[in-house]
Amino acid sequence: MNISELITRINFLANKKRTVGLTDTEKAEQQQLYQEYLANIKGQLKNQLDRIEFVNENSTQH
């Protein structure tokens, strides 16, 4: 499931939770989707941090 589909499903379940409530199966799915979403965000952040290069005042890379 791509990130757009993931967010759409998370939003659908969140709206349903507020209006009519969720079944136990939907609650489990919601938790699993949240975990997938968080793992994706953490992966993106790690990827960005891994690309950072520090340069000291002598302009040499570390």
From TrEMBL:
This is UPF0291 protein IAB06_00940. InterPro entries: DUF896 (IPR009242). It comes from Candidatus Avacidaminococcus intestinavium. It is found in: Cytoplasm. Belongs to the UPF0291 family. The keyword Cell wall biogenesis/degradation does not apply. Keywords: Cytoplasm. Pfam families: DUF896. GO terms for cellular component: cytoplasm. Its main location: cytoplasm. It comes from the Bacteria.
